[in-house]
Design brief:
The protein is of the alpha/beta class. The protein has twelve helices and 15 strands. A seven-stranded parallel β-sheet has the order 7-8-9-10-11-12-13, with helices on one face. A three-stranded antiparallel β-sheet has the order 1-4-5, sandwiched between helices. The chain has a three-stranded antiparallel β-sheet with strand order 6-15-14, with helices on one face. The longest helix has 19 residues. The structure holds magnesium ion (MG).
């Protein structure tokens, strides 16, 4: 089989205002994406998505489009899309980084391979190791304490038993926000905090000590990107599991995290890690070192969320039962782009068992969503 054509569709949609995210990396009120369509000489078509938050990964829908159209697509025409390792090798030879951009093309190749073999992608990854209904946590913006407490109660009412609270803005406000949420929801709800690299080691250790009474379950990305030693120091001193997210794009980063014993959990997802295959490599490496993984998110739309779901269902070390992940992206928006959207309700996301990624993109709708 050969790739014959690659098309790209920039799209931008609003985040539902009542759930818009504010973190140490700013406000997320609109979501830009690049949806890709790979055609083959067999007539099989694959869909992919680059989730392009430029403030987060350095990639925008325009850089993704340009890199694909000018660099990656010309290198991939004529290549067998079912040989994913070769697709990765060719893309890495043509351009460094551009994780979300490459992931869009890579997941489209998995989509094609699944359709060819008439199997969902999780079967191609080794078969389902857990239910297709994946438990999720709810991620809350860095609201003022009173608003955070009220919203937390509402989320618990929606069925969430794990809440993630954004911190890493102002340390005093961070502590007050988490304490207010704990007081509101009581002892039975798991609380996770995510600083998105907004604290340094001293601040993280001080805040976590002040929050000892709030019984945190997990501290996500307490310290700056690339600072493995600081994260390891926080982990040694706070007595709460630490998760690496913003600092782990590829296998080199994962190795450094393990070498520094910097974390108990690594957040992975196909977009951030450059594709399903590369994310799976990190999950396996972590497993060999006794480190758990779970699913992270950049507020993906329907296609990339499906790719995330397959990774969770196909790999044992995606420990979503212990560390519920972020897999609600489409729910944050009113606009959907596939004909059979993933079922996201009551704190979980159910992944399709149809072949490939299991989602069918409404291609005709995309030009109307062009930014
Ligand atoms: Mg995070």
């Amino acid at each position: 089989m050969e790739i014959t054509r690659i098309e790209t569709f920039p799209a931008e949609i609003a985040v539902r205002s009542e759930v818009a995210i504010t973190s140490s990396r700013g406000k997320h009120v609109r979501s830009p994406y690049l949806i890709v369509r790979i055609e083959t000489d067999t007539g099989l078509v694959g869909a992919g998505e680059a989730t392009t938050m430029v403030r987060w990964s350095g990639e925008s829908c325009w850089t993704a489009q340009s890199v694909i159209e000018r660099v990656l697509a010309p290198a991939l025409i004529g290549v067998d899309p079912t040989d994913i390792a070769a697709v990765d090798r060719i893309m890495d030879g043509a351009a460094v980084h551009n994780w979300f951009t490459k992931a869009a093309l890579e997941m489209a190749c998995w989509d094609i391979r699944g359709k060819l073999e008439d199997k969902p992608v999780y079967e191609l990854l080794g078969g389902p190791v857990r239910s297709r209904t994946v438990p999720a946590r709810f991620s809350m913006a860095a609201y003022d304490p009173e608003t955070a407490a009220a919203k937390a109660l509402e989320r618990v009412d929606w069925g969430y038993t794990t809440l993630k609270i954004k911190v890493g803005t102002d340390p005093e406000e961070d502590v007050a926000r988490v304490e207010a949420v704990r007081e509101a929801v009581g002892a039975g709800i798991a609380l996770v905090i995510d600083a998105n690299g907004g604290w340094n080691a001293e601040t993280a250790i001080r805040c976590c000590r002040q929050l000892e009474g709030s019984n945190l379950s997990l501290v996500e990305q307490p310290t700056p990107i690339g600072d493995y030693s600081s994260m390891a120091r926080v982990r040694r001193e706070i007595g709460v599991p630490v998760m690496a997210d913003d600092t782990c794009f590829d296998l080199v980063h994962a190795r450094e995290l393990l070498r520094h014993e910097a974390c108990d959990v690594i957040s992975v997802y196909p977009g951030k890690n450059g594709g399903i295959r590369k994310a799976a490599e990190i999950v396996q490496l972590a497993e060999e070192h006794g480190v758990a993984c779970t699913i992270g998110s950049n507020l993906e739309w329907d296609v990339a969320t499906a790719a995330m779901g397959h990774l969770v269902i196909g790999l044992e070390n995606m420990q979503v039962e212990t560390y519920p992940g972020d897999i609600l992206g489409p729910w944050y928006h009113h606009e959907r782009i596939v004909r059979q959207p993933l079922a996201i309700e009551r704190a979980s996301c159910t992944v399709s068992d149809r072949p490939g990624l299991g989602v069918e993109v409404d291609w005709a709708k995309l030009p109307q969503l062009r930014p």
